[in-house]
Description:
Layout: H1 6-65, H2 68-86, H3 96-113, H4 127-200, H5 214-273, H6 280-308, E1 316-319, H7 320-330, E2 339-344, E3 350-353, H8 355-371, E4 377-383, E5 406-413, H9 420-423, H10 443-453, E6 457-462, E7 468-477
Parallel strand pairs: 2-4
Antiparallel strand pairs: 1-3, 3-7, 4-5, 5-7, 6-7
Helix pairs in contact: 1-2, 1-4, 2-3, 3-4, 4-5, 5-6, 7-8, 8-10
Amino acid sequence: MFQTSLRRKVMLGYALISTLALGLSLFTLVELRLLSQRLHAGEQIFTLLNDVLEMRRFEKNFFLYHQQEDLEQLREYVDRVTQTLQRDSPETPQTPHAIEQAQGWIRAYAQLTTPPAPDRPAAELDETRLRTLGKALVTFAEQRSADERFAIRQALERHRLLLLAAMVVVIGVIVLLGGSLSQRIVLPLRRIEESMKGVADGQFQQIHIPSMDREIVSLTSAFNLVLKELRQRQRHLLRSEKLASLGTLLSGVAHELNNPLSNISTSCQILAEELNHPDPRFQKELVTQIDEQTKRARDIVRTLLDLARDRAFQRAPVRLAATVEEAVRFSKGQIPARIQVLREVPETILILGDRRRLHQAFINLLKNAIDAIPEAGVVRIRVLRPDEETTEGSGPFAGCRCPAPWCDIEVSDSGTGIDEAHLGRIFDPFFTTKPVGQGSGLGLAVVHEVIEEHEGCLTVESRPGEGSRFVIRLPMLTGEGHE
Length: 483
């Protein structure tokens, strides 16, 4: 599979943005230079208009006062206007014909203000002709000034629009690059963050991020590897918890084994005493009792080995009443005399599941209930009737997808209850409200795992000081069966 690199894409993105920024800067410099040239040309035109107006002012003063100084000033401004028109660029809103016409007017004006002979009096200047030429020059200069102001405004507006367009393009490119990088970097990281929150809640779901980027693929693979290791270690810890829970059964198992062994020993002693006085019927009865008690001891040991052995999940018909009774019997050594365990489980109910794992679930629930009762109390295990919260998709089982038909089993206690802030986490691995050293936080996690393996559902209701109520929904078989 071909993989790309996020680092290369980020570098290309920075290079593209830098190129656009540099291009925008160069474009702005060029536009500013053109605008500066336009302003310089405007200054010349404004100077031309000012010189023409000054020329007309001295012209009027001369014809009013007939002073030689006014005529000299008039000739000076005529020379300035002539030089300005000679430098005029044809790249102006005015046509070259208009400029040539204005240059002809100023030449004619200059000839009229310069007497052909030094002895010619100034009073003989053609006033009408001068005024006509002066007016034409003023009109030309004013038109040039108006056209130049309009051209400068257009240049400024064009520069503003082009600058805005360039900024929009740069911002658009930045937004597109940012969105692309967000899709390729931020979203995968956000999914990994959500998965890490799930890990904190005890969920080890692997993540699959559709990405061709080498860094994201590597990060996803590393994260999934960590999840795999955590899942394996959690399984090992759960396995350790299951094995540790066997210690709580030893006293009950020892008591259960003592009864059949005691019966076997008594029957053997009686049988030995009766050898000299053979009574076939009585001897057969003793041998039958020895055989039954041996099978009973064998079943106890087999059940204990089943609990200790880590084998694959095997679904089979299981008689619920017998399973609950065995769980209570094996936990007998941990049940104080002040606590009463009540069972209300019909003998006819068959559960489709793994008897060994169901033993573990009920033993852990029973141990959790016993630990929650500090003084005298009652633990109750019963099967709910169909009219007691067993409607599909209602009550605490809203959204449960347990295969029908099902059976709802309630395990309740009269203990201290669970704080509402802890209810959402009691099935999380390693979460416990017990003091350090008195609980690993894996007991209810094992129960939750077992119920999930059976495609069942598990809910809890509890209030501080009012005890707790666990309800299990498991697939049920109809008709008779066997364990």
